[in-house]
Write a structure and sequence with these properties.
255 residues; alpha/beta; 7-stranded parallel β-sheet; 8 helices; 7 strands; 15% strand; binds nicotinamide-adenine-dinucleotide
Length: 255
């Protein structure tokens, strides 16, 4: 590996599964010390054990990113283990797919807490240390759903629209303190989240058949194809990229 993240300390929310796991593996292999913040029931402990056994530097902190106290403790634990966080990947997120008129206020609260409030909590906890360390890079996982409406996904699309703007507004406010903040915006990915989304939308009669996905984006995206985009944004290779919405969707939003 080229050690493109040598000397950096990364915190990846949702870093134990899906694209978050792919980013954990790639960032650690590229020389970063990585803090995984994921749910207690996730594979985080096993992932950290496996990567540390391979000579990499990874710590797992079980936490729910929508809970302010848990986030504060998690960030402090990563900082105590590795020093100030200089790369933050706000990746953890969940799906909500149902006919809008059947959605509930509880579901609205849940999806906004996990997909949006989490970014507010984690970024606010990480930024002071990142600024004091001289700067860093924040990557927020948005989606094509930030700009393309899908039937049955009003709540999810709304949460990703907020993510999209969160990444950009942070960039503008903190640029002159050495902070870059960008969003990566994937199309459909072959992860638990993506496969569940396809299955659920299909049940509601939305055309997400293999041929429909092929027409929109050629094929399903692989988790590693999001991790490499995140690596670019995390590394100094993207030193002049700030406030960007980087679509990794094989043309989905270009057609
Ligand atoms: P995934 O479901 O495979 O992984 C998500 C990870 O987040 C899991 O490890 C899970 O345990 C963790 N997580 C969930 N809720 C959490 C919480 N409250 N606190 C801490 N960790 C939590 O999914 P993935 O495909 O890697 O997707 C995750 C992100 O990617 C989400 O933000 C999602 O909106 C976005 N995204 C996914 C797709 C797709 O098709 N899969 C497309 C566009 C955007």
């Amino acid at each position: 590996m080229s050690q493109r993240l040598k000397g950096k300390v990364a915190l990846i929310t949702g870093g134990a599964g899906g694209c978050g796991l792919a980013a954990t593996e790639l960032f650690a292999a590229e020389g970063a010390r990585v803090g995984i913040v994921d749910l207690p029931r996730s594979e985080g402990a096993a992932v950290a054990k496996r990567l540390n056994a391979a000579g990499l530097h990874v710590v797992f902190i079980p936490a729910d990113v929508s809970d302010a106290n848990q986030v504060k403790e998690a960030v402090e634990t990563v900082e105590a283990a590795f020093g100030p966080i200089t790369v933050l990947m706000n990746h953890a997120g969940i799906l909500s797919a149902a006919p809008f008129l059947e959605t509930s206020e509880e579901e609205w609260e849940r999806i906004m807490a996990v997909n949006v409030k989490s970014m507010f909590l984690v970024t606010k906890a990480v930024l002071p240390g990142m600024i004091a360390a001289g700067g860093g890079s924040i990557i927020c996982t948005s989606s094509i759903s930030a700009v393309v409406g899908t039937p049955m996904e009003v709540l999810y699309c709304t949460s990703k629209g907020a993510t999209h703007m969160f990444a950009r507004a942070i960039a503008v406010e903190f640029r002159d303190r050495g902070i870059r903040s960008n969003a990566v915006c994937p199309g459909f990915i072959a992860t638990a989240h993506g496969l569940n989304e396809i299955e659920t939308l299909g049940r509601y009669g939305v055309d997400v058949t293999e041929s429909a996905i092929a027409a929109a984006q050629g094929r399903l995206c692989k988790p590693s194809e999001i991790a490499t985009v995140a690596l670019f944004l995390a590394s100094d290779d993207s030193s002049f990229v700030n406030g960007a919405h980087l679509f990794a969707d094989n043309g989905y939003t270009a057609i």
